[in-house]
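S., here's the first fold you wanted:
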Amino acid sequence: MDDKIESSTAPPDAKDMCVDEDDPSSTLLDLTSYQLHDLDSVELAANLTELDLTANRLSTLDPRIGHLSNLKKLSLRQNLITDAAVQPLSGWQEISGLEELVLRDNKLTKVPDVSIFKRLLVFDVSFNDISSLHGMSKVSNTLRELYVSKNEVTKMEEIDHFHELQILELGSNKLRVMENLQNYTNLQELWLGRNRIKTVNLCGLKCIKKISLQSNRLTSMTGFESCIALEELYLSHNGITKMEGLSSVVNLRVLDVSSNKLTSVDDIQNLTQLEDLWLNDNQIESLEGIVETVAGSKEKLTTIYLENNPCARTADYAAFLKRIFPNIQQIDSVIFS
């Protein structure tokens, strides 16, 4: 690497500097995987709009970043940033127009103070050691994407003011209850896999399109009835014993209920848009009645998983499914040309 990393609108080396071809005025400095311990050898041009410092060894924030008045996106993903190291951000008034802040995969134990950023759209603190969402109430209500996966969070709190939120990722935490979602009228995606949730409570979210509750402690599928815009539902690795509450989610394209305790296929007659159906690793004894059950999606379905069920042990299992679904492209791991 050169002694000095230059950033300008006409860089000599494209790997050091990238320019958005659709917006000549937008300037990106990408220093991903340079293993930098500091930015002493880096020139930070005043017109930078994006600074990507992913996968380095930074343990402090260079104060020059606080003077990049045009900065819109800042990524400090996969560094060594601690709570103390991130504190200067709260006083950097010149970059208060920041729209995207990524602190994923660092050493944070609490939500940092980012209240200075009044136009923040994306905030990512996943893969840290954050035990509480305390402090989220200070994050701008302009937020559209919030990522707090793989932490130690136990309660959904201080997040109900995000009326513009479209994506909420809280997977791999210690949540037991779904709550404070009632104001999320614009929410499109909700990711809550790998928690300890026992009951579905979506507070009437009618616009949501993707929901993941994989690897929780659910025993029932009820709670999705009002999610009429839902397109993808992931419920694998729970303790669900019956398929129910699905007749009203008629826009569903993907349904994953693998690795549960199902004994039959039910309540999907109305799902005329269903393309992917994952039923593997359950206790479904027979395919009898499945023709009627999947009548609505018979023409649309392209992928079905039923392996590791008793019904998949019969000799003509795959042939039977191919007869039912004329447009099937995949049965279990077998893909048809």
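And the second, which I think is the more interesting of the pair:
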Amino acid sequence: MEEYERNILAHIKEHGCSVTSVLDPDGDQPAFSYSIGVAQSSDAPELIVVGLDSKIGHWLVNEYNRRVKAGERFSPGVLYLGFLEGFAVQFGHVARHYRSEYMRSACWLHGGPNFEALQLIWPNTSGIWPWDPEADDWFRSN
């Protein structure tokens, strides 16, 4: 077992999950952060946050973990408060092929992409969602 894998397992044991943040060094792709172990520790879907600064993404994954450990559950298409100050967020299902592509350490833990995962979806500062006609191409693609 590699050192980073031992660190992941230690974080899961201590906190209920580990968080991985990925940055594109060229800046061509959006940053993303995701959970590893929430499904095991809380019997809730893993989480990915795309397009936000890694510190914010990391915090959001930890907040999700805290809330699911307390028994809260999240459903796609429902507005939730308390994640981003002044804004509601929503959740959407993450397709299996995206779990394989982006959530690699979670796939390692689960032995493949056969686990549930949600994406935390946020509006821009004007309250526009990625699927709204007013959303720009960058926001829509994240």
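Why I say that: Residues 24 and 31 are 7 Å apart (CA to CA). Residues 54-69 form the longest helix (16 residues).

Talk tomorrow,
H.
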